[in-house]
Task: inverse folding
């Protein structure tokens, strides 16, 4: 089993280590105490300050269980978890944590302002700071016009946004995001990813779990792949995705007439399975381009549909 | 009013009560800790279990010590917002409906309408506010856990104790607001309902003259008001009283107007009062005048009142302490509630005749008998004057001074005897008292509402505690079960004592199994069962069943014991000692339930 944990039996002394787990496991039991499901098999993990760490895996792989164990929402069957050097069940660690649950479980009878005010009070923030921070976060997640509406009237995307705002109310050092792009449209998804990158730029540590591979790939520095409660892969995203034995060459402004010449040069050097053509953009990029263009030129057909990166747009 | 137990002085009560509380909390904690250790030991071995339980307790206590008022208030506000947005104020509309029905269906011509209205309003307010708060308390936290909203709270720096305390405080504030509004509405309803007027016309009065034709006064009846009339006695000037009916009377003043006498009936007196009684201790003499431990039982199942036989030497004797001239400068204002048991009907519209006498407890000097007439369901008032006659040994009558001759070291005895042979007077210790004065009825009503408030606080804390580890419907059932057991805690206690001592008179009928046997075999509860081996086994099994019930009954709260509505409805000032003891008991229960709830919530996985 891959492992990145220290083998020391002491708590992490390295100030850069934000999260550490040692043989952390969780087995759900039935009423009689019989093992029902091993949600997480012994896991050793170390997450450092300032990185975006992704927990990746299919449904039921143990991602959310790991996150709940780190938050102290559930108790480990064996092993230990430390956050900021404190046991995961220590409430004081939460001062420095922001958490966005999978479905933004918030109080539906509150409006956006009341929601943020409530969570701000839980951090003991003074009234002026609560008001200032709430207004800034509501502005940031684009809910200014809907700030007086009760959350029961919000769409799923809006609920997700206010969920993000409550996770950031205390300007946390460590942000845990459970399926952060779930329920968001492509624009919201992109904004969320931009936000995660922005958090990293501000020195925050982000742990996110998702089964949307593209999202993880776009933002994470390191990932852990879980399957059936077991850690299967752990490492930097760029290293894990690097395909050895195949060389990629990108060039702009190359005319089609030059393709054969390039192919011949590559053949001379023994290259096999040579492909030359225009790369494709992602559907997300295409969609965002269409939306931006439509907003810039209302009533016209979007130009983005006919452009490609190779054309230089 | 009925006062089955003496109200102890708070200063004397609080010490032993505190000791009992700490002992109970210690034993319950020990039991729970042991149970937790056993469960953990079965899963992960005894050593690891011990370590977990120890760390759990330590962390729990540390969390409790780190409770933040700011976070508690934030969670309390949330609970209030939740309650308000779930339209809890609808209960006020229900209360308005209750008042409406009360106005329609409560009989204004009842024996004591003030008591009826007050008892109903206080009872309805308590029931409504307790029900609403119980439902709010048991459904709130499980709903949060089910909707997973609790996860966004527990991942903030919030202690479980703060969650429990916040819920309790929030719902307690909601309950307090509801109770205040209900109390005010109830007050207005009661005051308006009992207010009434009577007319007194010259046609309703008859002149009373002596043989020489001199006008002595007037007799007659008032006009009807709120379903009743009063018998009236006036002096020659037309001043007097409308006698006690339905627990009140009216003063009547008259003035001449153009050759005619115009009488004015004043407002009702004694209807909404807060009497401050000085109570004594009661002992009995049997029909031969010998001391007896109690009076005669006339067969009533409720042995609260004991009876004395008329036309014999039987007497009920109260000894009052603290009698001083300063406290009672105008004599002793004695007030009496006397039940009557007739072995023959007699003149049913008239009361039973008896006497009241004073006796010096030291030199046994006794006053002349003061005649009284005992009527059912009314409080008879008798002012014993400063100057009294006493019959000397040689038969001479001599005037004596109340305080100099009958009071010894601040103590005086009041003797009650029934004069009519084969008729009986029934009395309890609380039935005779000296009236020290009057408290404010409004303040007494507020104190009565305070009793309801205590009940609401306990119910809320109980509901919140159960909701930390049970689903909402189960928590509701559990809370109701605890309150029901608590309601019968006196009975269970007596039953256990009866089984333990073998004295069937304490609580006849036996424990659950014996009761079932008696029901099936149709055996009366007063009939002693033959001590066969089967009966012995049955009694032993009852003891085994009753022991945990007795323990539970000792721990569970009794809302009826906290209720002070009887004092208000009965027209008695609620003693400060009782209120202080109730407040301390409420605080103890609330603290215990909140701490237990905090530990229960801490021990569970809110996200599993």
Result:
């Amino acid at each position: 089993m891959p492992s990145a944990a220290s083998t020391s039996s002491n708590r992490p002394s390295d100030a850069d280590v934000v999260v550490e787990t040692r043989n952390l496991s969780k087995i759900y039991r039935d009423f009689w105490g019989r093992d029902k499901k091993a949600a997480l098999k012994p896991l050793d993990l170390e997450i450092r300050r300032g990185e975006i760490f992704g927990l990746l895996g299919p449904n039921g792989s143990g991602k959310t269980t790991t996150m709940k164990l780190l938050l102290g929402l559930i108790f480990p069957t064996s092993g230990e978890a430390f956050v900021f050097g404190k046991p995961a069940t220590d409430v004081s660690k939460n001062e420095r944590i922001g958490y966005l649950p999978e479905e933004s479980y918030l109080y539906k009878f509150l409006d956006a302002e009341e929601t943020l005010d409530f969570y701000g009070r839980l951090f003991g923030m003074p009234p002026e700071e609560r008001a200032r921070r709430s207004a800034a976060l509501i502005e940031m997640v684009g809910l200014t016009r809907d700030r007086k509406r009760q959350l029961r009237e919000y769409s799923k995307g809006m609920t997700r946004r206010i969920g993000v705002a409550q996770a950031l109310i205390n300007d946390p050092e460590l942000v845990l995001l459970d399926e952060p792009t779930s329920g968001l449209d492509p624009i919201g998804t992109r904004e969320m990813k931009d936000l995660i990158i922005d958090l990293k730029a501000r020195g925050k540590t982000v742990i996110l779990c998702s089964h949307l591979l593209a999202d993880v790939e776009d933002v994470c520095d390191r990932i852990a792949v879980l399957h059936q409660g077991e850690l299967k892969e752990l490492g930097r995203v760029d290293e894990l995705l690097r395909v050895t034995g195949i060389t990629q060459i990108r060039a702009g402004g190359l005319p089609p007439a030059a393709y054969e010449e390039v192919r011949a040069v590559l053949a001379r050097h023994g290259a096999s399975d040579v492909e030359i053509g225009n790369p494709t953009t992602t559907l997300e990029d295409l969609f965002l381009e269409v939306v931006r263009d439509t907003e810039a030129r209302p009533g016209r057909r979007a130009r983005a549909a006919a452009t490609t990166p190779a054309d230089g747009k | 009013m009925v006062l089955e137990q003496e109200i102890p002085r708070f200063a004397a009560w609080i010490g032993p009560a505190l000791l009992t509380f700490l002992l109970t909390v210690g034993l319950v904690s020990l039991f729970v800790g042991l149970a937790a250790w056993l469960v953990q030991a079965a899963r992960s071995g005894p050593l690891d279990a011990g370590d977990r339980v120890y760390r759990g307790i330590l962390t729990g206590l540390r969390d409790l010590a780190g409770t933040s008022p700011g976070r508690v208030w934030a969670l309390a506000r949330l609970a209030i917002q939740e309650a308000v947005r779930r339209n809890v104020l609808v209960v006020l509309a229900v209360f308005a409906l209750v008042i409406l029905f009360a106005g329609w269906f409560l009989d204004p011509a009842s024996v004591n309408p003030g008591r009826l209205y007050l008892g109903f309003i206080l009872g309805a307010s308590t029931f409504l506010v307790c029900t609403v708060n119980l439902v709010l308390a048991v459904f709130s936290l499980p709903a949060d856990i089910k909707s997973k909203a609790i996860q966004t709270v527990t991942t903030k720096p919030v202690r479980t104790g703060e969650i429990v305390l916040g819920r309790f405080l929030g719902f307690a504030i909601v309950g307090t607001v509801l109770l205040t509004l209900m109390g005010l509405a109830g007050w207005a309803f009661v005051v308006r309902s009992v207010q009434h007027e009577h007319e007194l016309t010259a046609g309703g009065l008859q002149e009373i003259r002596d043989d020489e034709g001199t006008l002595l006064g007037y007799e007659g009846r008032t006009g009807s008001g709120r379903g009743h009339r009063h018998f009236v006695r006036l002096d020659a000037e037309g001043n007097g009283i409308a006698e006690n009916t339905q627990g009140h009377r009216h003063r009547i003043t008259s003035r001449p107007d153009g050759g005619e006498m115009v009488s004015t009936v004043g407002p009702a007196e004694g209807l909404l009062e807060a009497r401050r009684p000085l109570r004594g201790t009661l002992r009995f003499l049997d029909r031969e005048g010998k001391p007896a431990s109690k009076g005669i039982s006339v067969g009533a199942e409720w042995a609260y009142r004991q009876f004395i036989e008329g036309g014999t030497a039987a007497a009920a004797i109260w000894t009052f302490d603290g009698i001083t001239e300063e406290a009672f400068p105008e004599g002793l204002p004695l007030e009496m509630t006397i039940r009557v048991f007739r072995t023959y009907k007699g003149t049913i519209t008239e009361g039973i005749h008896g006497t009241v006498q004073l006796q010096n407890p030291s030199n046994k000097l006794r006053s002349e008998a003061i005649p009284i007439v005992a009527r059912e369901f009314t409080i008879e008032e008798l002012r014993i004057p400063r100057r009294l006659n006493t019959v000397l040994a040689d038969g001479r009558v001599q005037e004596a001074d109340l305080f100099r001759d009958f009071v010894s070291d601040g103590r005086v005895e009041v003797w009650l005897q029934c004069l009519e042979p084969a008729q009986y007077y029934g009395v309890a210790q609380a039935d005779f008292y000296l009236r020290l004065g009057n408290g404010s009825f409004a303040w007494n009503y507020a104190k009565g509402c305070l009793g309801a408030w205590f009940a609401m606080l306990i119910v809320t804390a109980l509901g919140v505690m159960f909701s930390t580890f049970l689903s909402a419907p189960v928590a509701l059932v559990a809370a109701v079960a605890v309150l029901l057991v608590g309601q019968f805690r006196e009975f269970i206690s007596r039953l256990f004592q009866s089984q333990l001592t073998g004295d069937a008179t304490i609580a006849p009928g036996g424990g659950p199994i014996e009761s079932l046997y008696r029901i099936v075999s149709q055996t009366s509860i007063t009939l002693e069962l033959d001590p066969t081996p089967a009966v012995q086994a049955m009694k032993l099994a009852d003891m085994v069943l009753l022991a945990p019930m007795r323990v539970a009954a000792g721990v569970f709260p009794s809302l009826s014991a906290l209720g002070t509505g009887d004092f208000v409805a009965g027209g008695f000032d609620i003693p400060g000692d009782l209120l202080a003891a109730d407040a301390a008991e409420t605080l103890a229960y609330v603290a215990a339930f909140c701490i237990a709830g905090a530990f229960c919530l801490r021990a569970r996985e809110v996200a599993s």
Observations:
- The first strand of chain B starts at residue 205 and ends at 209.
- Chain B has 16 helices and 21 strands.
- Residues 470 and 557 of chain B are 20 Å apart (CA to CA).
- The radius of gyration of chain B is 30 Å.
